[in-house]
Design goal:
Porin; UPF0311 protein QVZ41_12005; single chain; UPF0311; 174 residues; mainly beta; ten-stranded antiparallel sheet; 2 helices
Amino acid sequence: MNRVIRYIIIFFLTISYHNFFAQEFVAPKLEFICELKVTIAPAKNLGITARGERIILPITGGTFKGPKMKGVVLSGGADYQYFNKELGRTELEAIYTIKTEDDVLIHVRNIGVIYNPKQDQVSSDAGLGEFYFRAAPKFEAPVDSRYNWLNNAIFICKPVPKNNYISIQVWRVM
């Protein structure tokens, strides 16, 4: 009896293994959430630290607007960056608060990378352009608000520097 059960288990594991590797891999879809227009004060350079050159960009305000939410970016946050000249990359972590038009406060923590692909032939050939600048914002909204859905998803964003602000285009990974 033990031998029969083992063969049955092996049979089902073999089928499961085959089905897993035979499946098609489909990229997730993206849903546009909003565009944040974030204003910043001049950069503060703390100099070289143990992790690299530390730069702080104080966030002074801004606005955001999308199909499900809109409001303002509150002053008081900052974009904390480490620049590594040898690698041609900057690691960033922006921490700030947004306030919806119905007065709900939402904490935002955005972690990303700015990379200069000119130093990397593989990336340059992939058509990344002059700079690769992507991040993954994490939203912390009150669970009893209509924005609770922000707590339960993964987001990506594409920051684009403009003349007077940084445009941060945010999508939810579906």
